[in-house]
Specification:
- Helices cover about 55% and strands about 5% of the residues.
- The protein is mostly helical.
- The strands form two sheets. Strands 1-4-5 form a three-stranded antiparallel sheet.
- Helix 2 crosses helix 3, helix 4 crosses helix 6 and helix 4 crosses helix 10.
- The longest helix is centred in the N-terminal third of the chain and has 27 residues.
- It is elongated, with a radius of gyration of 22 Å.
- It binds zinc ion (2 copies).
- GO terms for molecular function: ubiquitin protein ligase activity; zinc ion binding.
Length: about 280
């Protein structure tokens, strides 16, 4: 499938998913996105105005391999995708919303990814701006470029002045970028269908339940006797703890229905959230 048509399909799928949200849900989503954009603009402004922080971040970027840089971008995009989590997995007492801890972007990584994405943006708009220029002068040049765009926008309240629909448009764009990391050939992510472990945080939070007796655990084929050695997944399938723990340490799927649990694997988590977006979009 051509890139353009993949993008169009992805866009219509996310639009379909967003159209299932109520107007108050859209307002709350748009507010959390605006807050994230504002926070990132603030970080980027600090980076571009501090020669020390800029040099430190640039050195860190130099030390990363291509796949580490891809992972950094994927994790950053995933942090936006996670803003959709409450709408993709509506809260119920048995399935709280998890944001796997290792998917959170650390401060140094945030600086690095914002600088990396800023480089990409600058290169797109002014491809020759850093040509034949020593890296020692990059900070000054980028600061001037930034003050006309990002920094100027920051101080004039850019994020506040965006309409909710512009913010949601930006979200669609981010999800399209995120989607490119999974599920298509030749992308930077992992191969499709690769098994990843369930997030430890999510597994620890699974509830112990009464089996009710007479029900077979599909992993060991033995009856689950009364007691608290049985655990229930959010899809309501039950297993012995001793059977399901080794299973979930290798894969994040329910052995019965393939329900996906959160994972600390960035690409696996993007795939999980994307599957949920598709499922929500197909409801209309
Ligand atoms: Zn069992
Ligand atoms: Zn299940």
């Amino acid at each position: 499938m051509a890139d353009q048509s993949t993008t169009t399909t992805t866009e219509s799928m996310i639009m379909a998913a967003l159209s299932t949200l109520t107007s108050s849900q859209l307002t709350s989503l748009s507010a959390s996105l605006s807050a994230a954009f504002r926070r990132h603009n603030h970080h980027l402004a600090s980076l571009l105005t501090s020669p020390t922080l800029f040099a430190h971040t640039l050195n860190h970027l130099y030390s990363l391999s291509l796949s580490e840089k891809s992972l950094l971008i994927a994790r950053h995009l995933l942090s936006f995708l996670h803003l959709l989590t409450p709408f993709l997995f509506p809260l119920s007492s048995s399935s709280p919303v998890y944001i796997p801890s290792s998917n959170r972007v650390r401060l140094r990584d945030l600086d690095s990814v914002l600088l990396l994405l800023f480089f990409c943006e600058v290169r797109q708009h002014q491809p020759t701006i850093l040509e034949n220029v020593s890296p020692a002068r990059w900070q000054g040049i980028l600061k001037t470029y930034g003050s006309d765009t990002i920094l100027g926008n920051l101080y004039t309240g850019f994020a506040l002045s965006l309409s909710p629909y512009q913010v949601l448009g930006a979200l669609v764009d981010l999800v399209v970028k995120c989607r490119r990391f999974v599920g298509s050939k030749g992308c930077d992510g992992v191969e499709a269908g690769k098994e990843v472990a369930a997030s430890v945080d999510a597994v620890v939070a699974l509830p112990s339940v009464e089996s009710g007796g007479g029900v077979e655990c599909v992993i060991c084929k033995e009856e689950m006797s009364q007691g608290r050695d049985v655990c229930e997944l959010p899809c309501q399938h039950k297993f012995h703890w001793k059977c399901v723990l080794p299973w979930l340490s290798k894969r994040n799927t329910c052995p019965c229905c393939r329900f996906l649990l959160p994972t600390d694997d960035v690409y696996g988590e993007i795939q999980r959230l994307w599957d949920a977006i598709v499922k929500l979009g197909l409801q209309i």
